Amino acid sequence: MSKYRRQETSSEDSDSEEERRKKDIKERDEFANRLKAKDDTKTRKVAMPAGSGAAEAAKRLKLMETDAREKLVPKLRVESRRKYLEKRKEDKVAELEADIIDDEYLFEEEILTEREKRERAHKKQLLQLAKEHEKARELERVQRYHMPLEKKKLEAEIEPPDTEPPQSEQSKWESDQMSSAVFRFGAKDRKAQQDYDLLLEDEIEFIQALRMPGSEKGTKREPSPSPQAKILQTIQETKKSLPIYPFKNDLIQAIKEHQILIIEGETGSGKTTQIPQYLYESGFAVNDKIIGCSEPRRVAAMSVAARVAHEMAVKLGNEVGYAIRFEDCTSHRTRIKYMTDGTLHREFLSQPDLASYSVMIIDEAHERTLHTDILFGLVKDITRFRSDLKLLISSATLDATKFSEFFDDAPIFRIPGRRFPVDIYYTKAPEADYIDACVVSILQIHATQPPGDVLVFLTGEYILVMNR
User: Fold this and answer.
1) CA angle in degrees (0–180, nearest 5) for 289-292-298
2) What's the pLDDT tens digit per position in 257-268?
3) What is the pTM of this model?
4) Is 277 in contact with 252 (CB distance < 8 Å)?
5) Which parts of the sequence are annotated with region: Disordered (predicted)?
6) Residue 141 CB-density burial (10 A; 0-12 exposed, 13-18 middle, 19+ buried)
7) Which of 411, 405, 416 is nearest to 391 (CA)?
């Protein structure tokens, strides 16, 4: 029995110790909260007024603001919506007008499809209706009677602010000097006006009695061609005047008979712009195949693509496009694609066999660069296992024999003739200052030669900028 009593006593002692520990923790937390509250009451709140009365007032003000906000928000929402709609209408009309102006500037009427023509006409009709609606609103405002307001009188008394931008003394002095240097006449600059009508003393009056019809046979005039037709006619005449035009059929026949062809022609003979068009007209772009042409410079790829699209009367990016670094102006309809040598390298990464191309033209092969040399090795390997791929190497120098030997003795197609005669002159002695010699030569050409243009090649962009 004594053993059981000792166990009960020890359990009661442990329970009492646990209760005392919990009670002590509770008292400690309550004391900490009281100290915190006491410190909060003594601490000065700079952003909030002190005192219980101020707290109650702030609470009531917050409730009043909540009620007023709930009543005011719908009204503000309606006003904001009205202002937004007015501004949005002006922005959309200006955006539509700018879109029409850009579309008419970039694309001519004859190169648009029927759907694009309908879209342009629809945009013009929308713009006209929007402007007529605005005019109708202005007329309605004018015809209404408006109560006069006193603020209009006050607005009239206020001087309008100076809208001119501030000018420094230097700019004012320059404008004064420019105005004094301009040669002006007084009344001489005005257009002559007719002060009096010519009066005849004796005038004879006539009465039409009969009109005899004339014979229109042989005297009927043909309608004058439109400006677009004149442009197309000029383009066709220019294409026929190129040295490559008489050899069009022979060139196409040679391309059909040989897989690799070296084309040699002078600069300006029409190799870059005309050969892709001849291939397109001969059916080399059927079955969704592409005629590719690589250029050493990105500016050349862009300008040549724009020129070919203009000659073919198509929109740039549809049948004719270009691809350069960070810019791809092609679509699924593109059949003639101009690209830089670096872009063609990336084409090999996506299409190692150039499966989407039927003809590949390496233009300006005489400009030996690292990209061009790499391309020669790649296209040479591809032509050995793709017999349907045509490879054309275009060069403007007399080194075509070396290209022919590299491509397994490929045939050479030479295009004789130049568009303009070329005379070559050399200086009798070396010039110490070649920039000064260029300037003197240009002035000498202008003074002694027939009228025309002068093209000067310098060593770099820095020299060009410094000698403008």
Assistant:
1) 145
2) 888 888 888 777
3) 0.49
4) no
5) 1-56, 150-176
6) exposed
7) 411
